[in-house]
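Pair request: fold both.
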Amino acid sequence: MAISLRPHRHRIMALSGGARHTILVAESMEPLRVVAHRQRPWDPMLARVHSLTLDGMLAAGIGPESSRLLAVRADALLEAAARRRLGRQWEALLQRANRPDTMHDPRLPLPRARIIDAGPDIRQLAALLAVSRPASVRGIALASVLLTDGAGPVHNPRCRLDLGGVVRAAINFLPERPTPASL
């Protein structure tokens, strides 16, 4: 995956009082000069269409301030409803892994043993996603990527990644870390 970020711009998202947000763009040539941009009405739709790519970038540690769509996608992932929905999807995955296969199930079979072995970690991840305390977008994005990546350890039995290990990584990234300024 090739990632292209404009080196001459640095974007920072700041919330406004309304339904739309203001995205602040700081020029790297003049770091104290900040330009505000209103979130465009179509930005949330574009972020949803490109969610797989954007989630992968956020999970890899690229900051949401790097681009307008990353900022919009990060905002969507941090919403309490989206986090609860993601937690329920992890719980449903674990329930499906614990049920026997049926002949009439049109879905691809899951690597059940791998999912069941990671069960305690998956339950902890689902519980952390359900609570409404500050969380890091990187951990939420990693949890989302794990569920949606067909080549990942959740869906691909040939994937060599340890599911429990990557779920624990998402758990470790979940708590929002305090910045030195807030200490």
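--- second member of the pair ---
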Amino acid sequence: MIITLSGPPGSGATTTAKNIAINMSTDYYSAATTFHKIAQERKLTPDELRLLMLTEPTIDYEIDKEQLETIKKTKNIVVDSKLGAWKIDTPNVLRVYLHAPERIRAKRISQKLKIPVSDALAKMEKKEKQDAKRFMAWYGINIEDVSIYDLIINTEKWDPDGTLFIITKAVQRMTK
């Protein structure tokens, strides 16, 4: 089974994806890891690469290609990717979207990056706007449209263990 996780920055998608992969002893793919690898290869900061991506769609396409190639190598994988739900078109996919209020997400990012909440909020908003613009321009995808997802979880209400429990139960029901 393929499980895709997505959500805005600070929603807990990466933490949850890693927890699922560990809990289910399955492979894990992170589009962010590929993104950072590309930034490093081009000797750019993540912010510089993100700006370049607004005018150069080949970077997104490179991430897509690596994601799809990785998935083809395995039957079971957890995919942490903003576009995974849209780009992975195979049977047995559980598409999960995580969200939380902006103030909660900014606080989480602030703690993770050890920056003021106001800086985290500004960074988060900038990234979300850039992603939305790119995804609409390159793919015609409205990233705010969550209708493609099978399961939507508010991570303000559920801690990481609770979120993992919900997704694990969904996977169990789908594989019966």
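Observation on the second member. The first strand starts at residue 2 and ends at 6.
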